[in-house]
Structures are given as C-alpha cells and as structure tokens.
Amino acid sequence: MYDSALALLACPHCRGDLALTAETRDPDDGEILEGALGCVSCGKSFPVTNGIPRFVTEDSGYNPTWNYKWTKIDRGRGLNYKILDRSDPAFDTHNVFDCNGYEGRAHECATGRSVLDIGCGVGQYSVEILRRYDPAHVTAVDLTEGVDIFRKILRERYPEYKQKVLMVQASVFALPFRPGTFEYVFSFGVLHHTGRTRDAIRAAADMAAEGGHLNFWIYASSIVPISVREPGRPRPLRELIFAMYYMWIEGTWIRLFRNMSPAAAARIIRPFASDFWTWFNRIPFLKYIGMIVFPTIQHPDREYRFLNLFDGYCNHWDDTWSEHEIFPTLRECGIAIKGISPWRLGFWGVKQSGFYDTE
Question: Which residues pair with 111 in a beta bridge?
C-alpha cells in the first residue's frame, strides 16, 4: 500500500481514522511493506504485511477452501486470467466480466472514478477494468490470501498499475471504508459464497456513493415455465432435466466435499481433471457415463480444469437466487436498476436514495 491509501481506509468497527506506525518501506518507490494501522477512535490495531492491510479476524468467516484454491492450486499462475483472453476457450464459457458489462456501458462508469472490486480473488477483473476503462483507482478486497497472489501477479505482469491498485484483505461484512466511498462497486461470482447473500449485497451497496453504480453477479436459481405454447419460446423440458440432474449428481459431490478438508477434496477431484477423463467425456455415448459419474469442464489446460472443478465442487456456501428474491434488497438499498444480465443472475444499478419512495 501507499500513503494515499490512508485517506481511503477506515476502522471497520467504528469507521474512525487509521494512523500508520512502525512501517517498513520499499526504498525504490516508498510502498509501505510492513507496519500497523491503529484506529485513533477505538484503539484497535490492524497489521500491514506484504504491502497489504489486513482486517481479517477470527470472526470474519474466513474461507479455507478459497484460500487453498489460490495458495495451493493457483500458486501465482493466474489461471483465471484465461477467461479474459478472447482466443482462449475459457472466454466463451466463463466470461462473467463482459456478460455483466451491458455492452460496456456499466464498466464505462468506472472511467476516471474510484472503483471497488469485492471478492477480487487473484484480481483478473481488477486488471481488466484497469486495462479497458482507466479508472482513477481500484481497491481490490478479498477474504483470503488471494490478495497476495494478486500482488505477485500485478508486479510481475502489470507493474504499470501497481500504484493504482490497493489490495485489502477483509470481509465484505466488515469493510474498512466509510459508506459511500466508491463510485463504481462490482462483485462477480462471490457474494453467494458468503452464507449471507442479501446482507453481502447490502454491504456492497453501502460502499457506493450517491449517484454511484453497483454491478454484481451471483448464482441463479433455475426457473422453469410450466406452460409453453406460444411460438418462439423454448420448451422447458431440457432445463428441467438439467436442474434435476445437477441437484442429484453435483449436489451429492458437493455435500461430500463439505465434510472433507480442501486438500482431501482436491485429491479426489484431480483425476477428473486429467486428460484421460476429458477425452472420455468427448466420446459419443460414453460421455453420458462420465456426466453421471463426475461432470467436468472441457478445456485444453489441465490445471485450469482442475482449478475450476475445485471451484465448482468445493463450495461450503453456493446458494442460488431468483430475481424476485433479490429485487427487494436492491429497493431497500435505493439501487435503481439499469440492467439485468442476460447471464443470470446479474444486476446493474445506480444508487438513488428515494427512487422508490411513494407519496
């Protein structure tokens, strides 16, 4: 972190100012590498290590599964950056960033403004918004040591951005900023993993300034129409079968892995990321056996397959939601909806207090 971050950060408990003490700096550019941040109001103290301010405590709901994914599986390789490469097969299946960009109109709200990325992981979306939309500054928050992996990737591959990104380890439920600090707040594929999805949306909305924008994507519940008779509407049978199949097969594996350590689950998952299993799942008729045993993804990079299978199966919390369940929370937060993602379930909106008030 750099000295400019002190004006942005606040005590997550009382929102008081933070004072830096006992710092160690990079002799080349003055980056604060080690130190402590003390609240001048309540006296609580928070460490700065590896250039990252840390606000994670024992009651932060720390996620060991996600930490294992970044520190033991990814290990600084930035495998998730493949989804930003238009020439990579991952782009078509996992491109959450563009699918929730609303033809770029949503992300353009970041240009020249302050941005908050909640649940940044290894930072691929923070980097993408820097590369394509030139925000004034990006603050990237994650509960895990994914922020350390992000820091490593940024310095190795994108050093030109290192002074434009503040990485913070913190919980969405105890963010170390004052309400209304950011002009563009986004979170893709994260808030449903908290176990308190609607509270997480409220916390994200609280960080948006009046007139600022909130853009998030969470897992969607399957909605199957009962009656489909009008021309041009797809029949719901395939979606219904898929939903039942997912609940049975993948749900069974997920329930098993929830009772195991991340390392033990990874040992079971790794063979299903092998080249043999991927080949088996391409053979006509045999692929249906593979789908019944262990559904997998198709991608030429074995390690990318492994990371994404681990991501998909090792979720302690992965609730799915419908639009009518989430809209009341947005209304409560004064988020006027500008767009609903074609890839459910995503919302983009602007914070306008009183927008839903009626006389």
Answer: none
Whole-number pLDDT of residue 62: 64
Asked if residues 331 and 198 have their Cβ atoms less than 8 Å apart, the reply is no
- Can you tell me the distance from the alpha carbon of 75 to that of 284, in angstroms, rounded to the nearest whole number? 36
Range 126-133, long-range pairs (CB < 8 A, 24+ positions): 126/150, 126/165, 127/81, 127/84, 127/153, 127/154, 127/158, 127/161, 128/84, 128/97, 129/186, 130/158, 130/161, 130/164, 130/165, 132/107, 133/107, 133/108
Domain membership of residue 147 as a residue range: 56-220+323-351
What kind and span of H or E run contains 286?
helix 286-293
pTM score, two decimals? Answer: 0.94
- 13 and 46 inside one domain: yes
Whether residues 128 and 70 share a domain: the answer is yes
Last residue of a domain, one of 33, 54, 75: 54
**Please, which pLDDT band fits residue 232 given cuts at 50, 70 and 90?**
confident
What pLDDT is stored for residue 238 in this prediction?
A: 63
Q: What is the pLDDT of residues 136-149, one digit of tens each?
A: 999 999 999 999 99
Per the CB < 8 A criterion, the answer to whether 53 and 176 are in contact is yes
pLDDT tens for 59-90 read 666 678 999 999 999 999 999 999 999 999 99
- Would 94 be classed as within a structural domain? yes
Are 61 and 47 in the same domain? no
- Number of domains the chain contains: 3
Residue in the structure block whose two tokens are 């080949």? 279
Asked if 50 and 195 sit in the same domain, the reply is no
